[in-house]
Amino acid sequence: MAASTADVEAIGSHCQMAFCGQLDFLPFRCDSCRGTYCLDHRSETAHACKHAGEWARRRNNLSASAASSGPSTPKPNIRNHDKQCSSPECKTLIDTALTPGIHCQRCNRSYCLKHRMEEEHKCATLTPIGARPTGQGQLERGMAALDKLRAWGASKKAAAGQSQSQAQATSKPSISANVVALNALKRAAKGDEKIPVAKRIYLHVEASADTTTAKFPTGDFYYSAEWSVGRVLDAAAKSLQVQNVNNRVEGEEERLRVFHVEGGRLLEYSEKLGKLVVSGNTIVLLRGIGPPAPDLIEV
Fold first, then answer.
1. Can you tell me whether residue 24 is helix, strand or coil?
2. Where is 22: in which H helix or E strand?
3. Helices (H), ranges, the chain
4. Most buried of 21, 117, 247, 262, CB within 10 angstroms?
5. How do residues 70-103 score in pLDDT, each as one tens digit?
6. Where are the domains of the chain?
7. Whole-angstrom Cα distance, residue 197 to residue 189?
8. Is it true that domain 136-296 has CATH number 3.40.50.150?
């Protein structure tokens, strides 16, 4: 059963930047203004921080205070400071005046200088804090959704074949209906206005509820025919506000894939959109279904 919107939003946080509000499952916290922001607005410059440089001033004040207090100042220990290096075998206290903590963006944990490198704290084996749990159930749901979409694509092909045979006597009304539907799609579709009109491909985009939760489960968008499927996936996931961790995970359980309904197959990230689909087609975002296999090329 797909998670509710409230459950999904409880995992991450919305970017506090005005006019953004992006739901980010690994949000960034500004140490100066204490605000929460998405990847694009994490820096003080990007979100026009009203307290820019405050974190540095606080650190300098702590350092000056530690230097003036002399040797009588007690050193922080496990009893009065609970922030330790996240490496299990390390007991070093971090985020102190003398030992800064280094935050790992990949696993969302903080480490001492010794364990700051990914290979030192075995980052590849860790599940990022705040990420959704994965497992065999996710993969099974993904494959079930894929089977249903393949059947859907087959039925659409069959329906198209029947309508084509019937169109000999009523070709004008059929063509007219297709033109009307395509024009309606073009009027509703959103996209990058910098894309030349001649290169735009207008698509219906969905996020399968069987495998992923989207704030906006469907939408009409246009993309450049020259874009790769991977770039289209990134843009579609952002538009539908679907968690996209493809660049942060190695396994397939959390990776998003693109399914072309009319073509009845999964698309490779490197393929060019213009060679695969035409305006009016439908693509679906699926998670945890693995890479395209030879038996998935045709329905």
1. strand
2. none
3. 5-11, 54-69, 136-166, 171-188, 229-240
4. 262
5. 555 555 444 445 688 988 888 888 988 888 888 8
6. 5-125, 136-296
7. 12
8. no
